[in-house]
# Entry
Amino acid sequence: MTVDLSHYLAVSGIVFGIGVAIALSKRNVVAVLMGVELMLNASNLAFLAFSRFSGAFQEGTAPLTGHTFVVFVLTVAAAEAAVALAMAVLIYRRRETVDLDRISVLRW
Amino acid sequence: MDSLGIVVAFYVLSAVTIGAALSVFLLRNLVHAIVLLVLSFLGMAGLFASLSADFIAIAQILIYAGAISVLLVFAVMLTPLSSRNNANSLYVGPGILAGVAIAAIVVFTAIEVDWVQLTGDALRDRSFVDTIETIGDQLLGKHILAFEVASVLLLFALLGAIVLVTDPRGVGTDVTDDADDAPGATEEPA
# Structure
């Protein structure tokens, strides 16, 4: 038995699909954000798997661009979570709800 | 032929990650869903570690399982009990359909493509390779501009989050004062 690139990519695709389903079908703003975080995590797994299984890794000369990209994805995900959750709190304060089916207009 | 340990670790971690992510979809209580989301993040960190990505695995535990989950719990606790359910909206059917379609496409591609021909035979030797030094060289060398832009992005996200949640009528205003204003009868929002 061996575990190779296709196994990791399959796990990444399944988690990404679950994230898409959560982000599209949940009613609560926080739950939608959780789906987005799952999608970002799945893309990180794909980046790291490709970086690990590319040919240059074992010689120790790999540029590890996949790892560097994942560092930036983590940074942007943290910034996005902070701003989005602040917006959720603000929307609740003004509209008394975080139900996405009721936040359907851009003005009030 | 991998050693048995890495195979068992991969399947256990994959099962934990996917099962916890599915539970996030299925659970009715949003607080329970956040706890299982943290479990999914931890399983993903284990998968990262099995790919010799030690630095990213630690960063994943610190940032996702630590910081972002605390932010999520705060956002849930700042909204009332009535909005703590994890109900589906009207678009649950198309949402599930889109998720299944994307997962099926990716899994089919991952299985069908001959990756060994494209990536070389690097996976046969699974000895651990240190990554932190190379990541540091890359971040402060070739990708220095993106590194600085990311720091500016973090600064503006911090400022934006503070500005958004600060009450425009003055810091220190009791939040319960807003509650007895009828919605719509409040004065002009800033």
